[in-house]
Specification:
heterodimer, A: mainly alpha, Cytochrome C Oxidase, Chain A, B: mainly alpha, Four Helix Bundle (Hemerythrin (Met), subunit A), disordered N terminus
């Protein structure tokens, strides 16, 4: 039906009604969810799984921040603290941040944005959710049966010969969850190539699609290397081999190379989809085609490509050759170029845009600030001399939290708010949304900015006790973490509440241009009544009415606070 | 982009639509998509084996003498025979795909069975080799002998690394062979029921691709494990 895109939907009535049939009420009962192959339902299943894992990882973080409130060890022992930071890292990296945006927003949106009925392989998509959960259960078993220590990085020979915790179980959990990543990446790549609606050329793809595509390439190329590396760690530990043990002729630095060959690109697995979300939010809420569309799209691919040749910047003090260190330092500087291209283009998109400061845009602006700080401090760490001073300190901890938590979670929550009307059919409460965005931004900076200072002053990471002169920074950080915790809890509560109680959104409450907004909210199981034929460029706002809801947002919002 | 216009009427199209999943517009798009998916999967397999090849590369350049000793302790004849067996199994698999495309049901079933027999023969020979390693005391962590004449204790410790990699690489390869045999058993049952026709034979083609990939891994493993010290002999 070419009219779908050629003539956008007419302005909405002020009180639209939920459609009679949609993917949420198409069938009922637990079985209809556990055996679903609908990409939208699988997205929601993933959302439930990763929210649970985020809560577990968050509890570990809160315990650590409580311990660090005072200089001596008082709340937990050194052994327990080692387990806390290890399990916090494992859960947050592999069971929240890596799957966060691709498996939820990606699963929900990739087919809709290109006008397809589903992903290329819907059953594989369901299988990947099951693999994820099996991996999560095995990892939780490792936690409940006594925990893991030694750090999320599994450095050998510490992990294979010296730890008395459940290393093999945790590695098995990550190994299994890795295959869920691989299948998701494979599905997205094939879908992007083969499932686009007529007229949806590569140059018309939304920028979220470009960044998800780049992410999928990394998932598919890097994750298998992690899988084989963890398998070798398990073999070495179980059979007392010396693959990575220098006492038996093995090379521990080889382990680090193999591990970071995955784990550095993994950071781009976390941040690239976030960048895709930000591109969508900034365009919609300034009602402008993104400045330099081709450059934003191309920089996603460039980041994925550069991301594969910077891994050894984690190993500057591990005894690699000075020439290797020089090259990896240079390449790490180079990866900042495409990142900067994105930041400047987003800023230029906002310039003279018709801006409405709705919750998703507040999250996007927060992302811009946090990502810029995280990115700039990354350049400090890429510098060979300075890295020797701040390696393994809180400076590193603060840097990667600014990117992975500040960047990715801001974008994830911004995206959840933005697409919530599409997912649930209803609006989120605006005032609460703005409050949560503000709390998270303030709480995040209060938690992690002091850690830059701590690190620069010489506080090493992974210690549960510290000299008294560091206490003031740790108190600030713990105070910030409490605010951050409230900020993360709020959306969980009000979004759940809004699912039944908020005003109905209608198909396109933002006046956005993407194909996903050209169908009803919530969509039918096959997304579109007939396959759309795309005749417009992406982000072409001509003829799309300005959002009706924005006009009444203040009065709508005021009903929720009273 | 593979959304072609409507199909021409005919019995072949009607038959195709029985296999058409709802997310696709037509059989051609479905087939191209499935085959592309298999190629991407094989890329992930290359990376999976790649970690082991990387470890091999590093340790062989670090310990060339130990790797030569380890290599010369392998059963060269059985390894070579297995290479020939596996190349022939790739031939029968390629012929099976052709038989499926031509709709020759009987030939398809027999060629798949021939491929399975060759695959099983490979695993049998591999089993004999593993048995020899156990008898000769070459299994790391179990009964590895550090007192081979002419090999110092220090070098013997490095030979262990070769043997660990040998078992990891051939073990992972053998695991892929077993998975392939299981998939082919499923194909034989389906083919016997007449599931594959000239219009619909994608599973045969995809599992064929997988089998060729597993063969190709061995084509690299064979020289790296068996041949590196042969020029002395």
């Amino acid at each position: 039906m070419s009219t779908l895109t050629a003539q956008p939907l007419s302005p909405q009535p002020l009180a639209p009604e939920l459609p009679a049939n949609h993917y949420l009420n198409e069938s009922h009962g637990l079985k209809s969810w556990l055996l679903t192959t609908d990409h939208k339902r699988i997205a929601l299943l993933y959302m439930a799984s990763i929210t649970l894992m985020f809560a577990i990882g968050g509890i570990f973080a809160m315990l650590m921040r409580l311990e660090l409130l005072t200089p001596p060890a008082d709340l937990v022992s050194d052994d327990t603290y080692n387990k806390l930071f290890t399990m916090h890292g494992i859960i947050m990296v592999w069971f929240f941040l890596i799957p966060s945006i691709p498996t939820t927003l990606g699963n929900f949106l990739v087919p809709m944005m290109i006008g397809a009925k589903d992903l290329a392989f819907p059953k594989l998509n369901l299988m990947s959710w099951y693999l994820f959960n099996i991996g999560a259960v095995v990892t939780i078993y490792a936690i409940l049966s006594g925990g893991v220590d030694g750090g999320w990085t599994f450095y050998t020979p510490l992990s294979t010969g010296y730890l008395n915790s459940h290393v093999v179980a945790a590695a098995t959990g990550i190994f299994i969850a890795g295959f869920s990543s691989i299948l998701t990446g494979l599905n997205f790549i094939v879908t992007t190539h083969r499932m686009r609606a007529p007229g949806m050329t590569w140059k018309r793809l939304p920028l979220f699609m470009w960044s998800n595509y780049a992410t999928s390439v990394i998932l598919v190329l890097a994750t298998p290397v992690l899988a084989i590396t963890l398998a070798l760690v398990a073999v070495e530990r179980l059979l007392h081999f010396g693959i990575f043990n220098p006492a038996l002729g093995g090379d521990p630095v080889l382990f680090q190379h193999l591990f970071w060959f995955y784990s550095h690109p993994a950071v781009y697995i976390m941040i690239l989809p976030a960048m895709g979300v930000i591109s969508e939010l900034i365009s919609t809420f300034s009602r402008k085609r993104p400045f330099g569309y081709a450059y934003i799209a191309g920089s996603s691919i460039a980041i994925a490509a550069f991301g594969f040749v910077v891994w050894a910047h984690h190993m500057f003090v591990a005894g690699i050759s000075v020439y290797a260190a020089l090259v990896f330092s240079l390449m790490s500087y180079a990866v900042s170029l495409p990142s900067a291209v994105k930041v400047f283009n987003w800023t230029a998109t906002l310039y003279k845009g018709s801006i409405s400061y709705r919750t998703p845009l507040l999250y996007a602006l927060g992302f811009l600030g946090l990502f810029t700080v995280g990115g700039m401090t990354g350049l400090f760490l890429a510098a060979l001399g300075l890295d020797v001073h701040i390696h393994d300190t809180y400076f590193v901890v603060a840097h990667f939290h600014y990117i992975m938590v500040g960047g990715t979670i801001m974008a994830y929550l911004g995206g959840i708010h933005y697409w919530w009307p599409k997912i649930s059919g209803r609006m989120y409460p605006e005032v609460w949304g703005r409050l949560s965005a503000l709390l998270i931004f303030v709480g995040f900076n209060l938690t992690f900015f002091p850690q830059f200072i701590l690190g620069y002053l010489g506080m090493p990471r992974r210690y549960h006790a510290y000299p008294p002169e560091f206490q003031v920074w740790h108190v600030l950080s713990t105070a910030g973490a409490s605010i951050l915790g409230v900020g993360y809890l709020l959306p969980l509560i009000y979004l759940t509440w809004s699912y039944k109680n908020s005003p109905v959104a209608g198909p396109n409450p933002w006046g956005a241009s993407g194909l996903e907004w050209q169908t009803q909210s919530p969509p039918i199981t096959h997304n579109f009544v007939t396959t759309p034929i795309v005749t417009r460029e992406a982000y072409d706002y001509t003829g799309i009415p300005a959002p009706a809801l924005a006009v009444r947002s203040e009065e709508e919002a005021s009903t929720y606070v009273s | 982009m593979s959304h072609s216009a409507g199909h021409a009427p005919g019995s072949a199209v009607a038959e195709l639509d029985n296999h058409l999943e709802m997310q696709f517009d037509d059989a051609e798009q479905q087939k191209e998509t499935s085959s592309f998916g298999m190629w991407v999967f094989l890329v992930t397999e290359v990376m999976f084996f790649g970690g082991l090849f990387m470890a091999y590369l590093v340790y062989r350049s670090q310990y060339p003498q130990a790797f030569a000793i380890g290599s010369s302790q392998l059963n060269f004849k059985l390894g070579t025979a297995n290479t020939v067996v596996l190349i022939f199994s790739s031939l029968t698999m390629a012929l099976a795909v052709r038989a499926a495309q031509l709709g020759q049901k009987k030939a398809l079933v027999w060629l798949l069975i021939a491929t399975m027999i060759l695959g099983a023969a490979f695993l049998g020979f591999k089993g004999i080799e593993y048995h020899e390693h156990i008898l000769e005391g070459h299994v790391p962590g179990a009964n590895f002998r550090y007192d081979t004449p002419g090999v110092s204790f220090a070098v013997a410790k490095e030979v262990v690394l070769f043997n660990i990699l040998y078992f990891c690489m051939t073990g992972l390869h053998a695991f892929h062979m077993i998975v392939g045999l299981g998939l082919m058993l499923w194909l034989v049952i389906k083919a016997q029921k007449g599931a594959f026709t000239p219009a619909y034979n994608t599973p045969v083609e995809l599992i064929g691709l997988y089998w060729h990939f597993v063969d190709l891994v061995w084509i690299y493993l064979y020289p790296l494990l068996y041949l590196i010290d042969r020029y002395h002999k």
